Amino acid sequence: MEIFAVIQNFLNNREKRECNPNAIKTYSRQLSLLARWLEKHHSTNIEIVTSKILNEYVSHLRDCEKKLSPTTIRQRAKTIRTFARWIHETGIVTDNPNIGFIIPKKPHKLPKCLPPDQIHKLISAETATRDRAIIFLILDSGMRRGEVAQLEIDDLDLVRGMAHVKHGKGDKERWVIFAKKTTKELEKWINERRAQPGVTALFTSRHGKPMNAPAIYKIIKRVAKTAGVNVSTHALRHTFATNYLDRGGNIHDLQTLLGHEDITTTMIYVSTSLERIRQTYKQLSFLDNMPGE
């Protein structure tokens, strides 16, 4: 079979499974790049997709003129891994291409976390009810902006302070939790919310249409600018995770809340939390601060 046709079948399968539309677009774009590379350097026959060829493609990504970041290369490799698993599970190829296929390691970079004074500025900024609810929800639950955009009214359980994330990263489902202050902000927004007929999205535009991830990004940047805080949308998620551990949260519970498939992804927040403890300890060490020393 031709790889272009197989990719289209794969995308159709993702649509039937009601995967996140943005994820499907990413699959389409990144797998098309792989297919065009195979067409140029090898063959378009799907049988060419082996671990050896896939590792060769990843090496090509490292050496290509565009100088892709390690994070981008890793993301593309993970997309290919999902596709390779599917073509093997469906019997399109006999041998499993993932056996021997090496996913580049994630670059070790400690996430940025907002200090308390900047958090206070952000949640105290003068802004619209909807925008304030979004800020509170991400800070209190650690949700990704794309997940916030996908939320529907019926996904909320305001009594228990929970939200059902139906289309998380990798199209995985999970529940996230938020506290009383966030519940109040969400209730305020729901009372003001106006939506066009048939629109079930929790967060809508002023025209009543569902919001997407880029719109959530713009809101966060706008509120941050108003507050005088330099923050990325993902930093809010990092802030939630780091503070969760700082206050005694369990690493495995945090893995569940963040929707991480691999615990090693969550462990980076342990490093961040320990760094805070180290800085505090310098000031509290009884030996370093003994009178007369």
What features would you describe in this structure?
It is built from twelve helices and three strands. The protein has 293 residues and is mainly alpha-helical. Among the domains are: 87 residues, Orthogonal Bundle (DNA polymerase, domain 1); 117 residues, hpI Integrase, Chain A (Orthogonal Bundle), CATH 1.10.443. The protein has a three-stranded antiparallel β-sheet with strand order 1-2-3. A hairpin with an 8-residue loop joins strand 2 and strand 3. Helix 3 packs antiparallel against helix 4 and helix 6 crosses helix 9. The chain is globular and about 70 Å long. The protein starts with a helix and ends in a 9-residue tail after the last helix. The model has no long low-confidence stretch (mean pLDDT 89).
- The chain-level structural class is mainly alpha
- Figure out the total of helices: 12
Question: Tally of extended strands?
Answer: 3
Which segments are poorly predicted (pLDDT under 50) over 5 or more consecutive residues?
none
- CATH fold assignment of the domain at 116-232: hpI Integrase, Chain A
The proportion of strand residues reads under 5%
- Compressed to H and E, one letter per element, the order equals HHHHHHHEEEHHHHH
The CATH class name of the domain at 116-232 reads: Mainly Alpha
CATH superfamily of the domain at 116-232: Intergrase catalytic core
Q: From the 3D coordinates, which CATH architecture of the domain at 116-232 would you assign?
A: Orthogonal Bundle
| Rg | 22 Å
The overall pLDDT, averaged over residues, is 89
| Main sheet record | 3 strands, antiparallel
How much helical structure, as a percent, in the residues?
55-70%
Spatial strand order of the main sheet: 1-2-3
Gap between N and C termini: 77 Å
Q: Choose one word for the global shape.
A: globular
